[in-house]
Amino acid sequence: MQKRHQARLLPAPGAAHDGRGNVLPGTVVDTGICHPHRNDFFLNAHAGLQGTNRPAHYSVLADQLGLGADGVQQLTFWLSHLFCRCTRSISVCPPAQYAHLAAARAAALLRNLPGGGEA
Length: 119
Fold this sequence. Notes:
Radius of gyration: 17 Å
Helix content: 25-40%
Low-confidence stretches: none
């Protein structure tokens, strides 16, 4: 999963969009701007509150459940509604968000160790 990129998804002329001009939540792009030989996709899982939405970019490393591309994309969208701190969907899949929060907490704890957490 990649959060820091510059890609934006804009609706095609005449296509459905929200009141702010963003693509609708659940929009998946897996052709055109994605790698032609890898299983990756952009998912706009959330409704934008302000400005232009930035989708998350996911790269599937292994599909051990055999869901296929559409199944992985749908599962990722469903998971985005399960974040415990929010009643709405979030932009990234919660397991990735929880990992980000755990890494930030670990970094803060390491900074407070005697010696400054130097490795």
